[in-house]
Amino acid sequence: MRSTGWRSQLRRVAMTAVGAAALLCLIRPAGAFPDRPVVVVVPFAPGGPTDIIARILSLALSQSLGQQVVVDNRGGAAGNIGMGQVARATPDGHTLLLASTAIAVNPALFKNLPYDPIKDFAPISELVNAPNVLVVHPKSGINSIADLITRAKAEPFSYSSPGAGTKSHLTGELLKLRASIDMVHVPFRGAGPAAQAVVGKQIQVGSVALAAAESMIQSGQLRALAVTSEKRWFSLPNVPTMIEAGYPGFVSDTFNALLAPAGVPQPILATLVKETRAAFQKPEALALARKSGFEVVAGTPEQLAARIKAEIPAVRELVAKAGIPVQ
Question: 131-252: what fold?
Answer without folding.
Answer: D-Maltodextrin-Binding Protein; domain 2 (3.40.190)
